[in-house]
Design a protein that fits this description.
The protein has 141 residues and is mainly α. The protein folds into 2 domains: 6-98; 114-140, no CATH class. 68% of the residues lie in helices and 0% in strands. It has helices at 6-18, 26-42, 50-62, 67-98, 116-128, 133-140. Helix 5 (116-128) packs antiparallel against helix 6 (133-140).
Length: 141
């Protein structure tokens, strides 16, 4: 089971307080968030997409979670989504302030660099350290 990243957990705690979620339910809300993040990781879903929530609630029904638990889980994830919107708005405003823009791939030019010596050194290091041959393929990739 994945652990909730500390930054997200801190924002989530604040959001729970702002939404007036009773203190006794905070544990359960964090549990649902942890389950949701783990579910998204396991099935390679975008954790900020609304479709992931419907897939998650469908899974909860399959696991025979009652309607109250499903409602509580959905509320916890909606609070998580609100945190994500807040953080993404901050990032946009920071990018606008600094004037930093993303580099488009079509502007990147290929170089004529010779990577053979680098790969040879990498191969030698992996051989010396007795790593698995798959490691070399992964590192070369």
């Amino acid at each position: 089971m994945l652990k909730i990243p500390s930054v997200i957990e801190a924002h989530f705690d604040v959001a729970l307080a702002e939404k007036a979620v009773p203190q006794r339910l905070n544990f359960h809300y964090k549990k649902w968030l942890r389950y949701y993040l783990d579910f998204c990781h396991k099935y390679h879903l975008d954790k900020s997409a609304k479709q992931s929530l419907s897939d998650f609630t469908k899974k909860l029904r399959e696991k025979r979670q009652n309607a109250q638990q499903q409602k509580q889980a959905a509320h916890a994830i909606f609070i998580f989504y609100e945190i994500g919107r807040f953080k993404s708005n901050k990032k946009k405003s920071l990018r606008e302030k600094t004037g930093v823009s993303r580099i488009k791939k079509e502007h990147l030019k290929p170089t004529e660099a010779d990577w053979k010596p680098v790969y040879d050194n990498l191969y030698a290091e992996i051989k010396i350290r007795h790593y698995c041959p798959k490691t070399l393929r992964a590192y070369k990739g």
